[in-house]
Design goal:
It contains seven helices and no strands. The protein is mainly α.
Length: 160
């Protein structure tokens, strides 16, 4: 009987299972994967309607350069306000900054990409796939993917 218990322990440790190791592994995963309550912006399947609403609130393509210019100015003002310890002004600027960021598809793509990387690091592949799908939708709104028209290039002939 004791030999059977020892054999079971050896097999379990050979395949990497140990009750002590499992608790240590769970504790390490909890340290590296923050809970969903600490996330500021969460755009997963449960928030699909908010994702579609966020897409509907994007600024028109021709207004994006001015929105991005305003974002840069507000960020500078926010940094100055924090440096001068004007926290009420900084809070108002932070709110204005978040509102402008919600109009920029590139800012949303950065947030979704960061969330996807977090899901992959925590081995939550279903949620990472949902983020990937959202990034595919966001591609339509990003200027680097809106390259239309006929693209021609010079083709060099092979050297003899």
């Amino acid at each position: 009987m004791v030999a059977l218990a020892i054999l079971a322990f050896l097999v379990a440790s050979a395949i990497g299972y140990s009750p002590w190791g499992a608790t240590r592994l769970a504790a390490a995963a909890a340290r590296t994967c923050p809970s969903s309550r600490t996330r500021v912006m969460r755009l997963n399947a449960a928030d699909e309607s908010s994702f579609e609403g966020a897409i509907a609130s994007f600024a028109p393509r021709q207004d994006l350069p001015s929105v991005r210019g305003q974002l840069a100015k507000l960020q500078e003002q926010l940094n100055d306000a924090v440096e001068d310890e004007e926290y009420v002004l900084a809070a108002m600027l932070r709110d204005d900054l978040q509102e402008l960021k919600s109009k920029d598809p590139a800012a949303m793509a950065v947030a979704v990409r960061a969330e996807m990387n977090e899901h992959v690091a925590c081995e939550r592949y279903d949620e990472a796939a949902l983020c990937r799908d959202q990034l595919m939708v966001l591609r339509r709104f990003l200027p680097q993917y809106q390259l239309a028209g006929l693209w021609k290039g010079a083709r060099r002939s092979p050297s003899p």
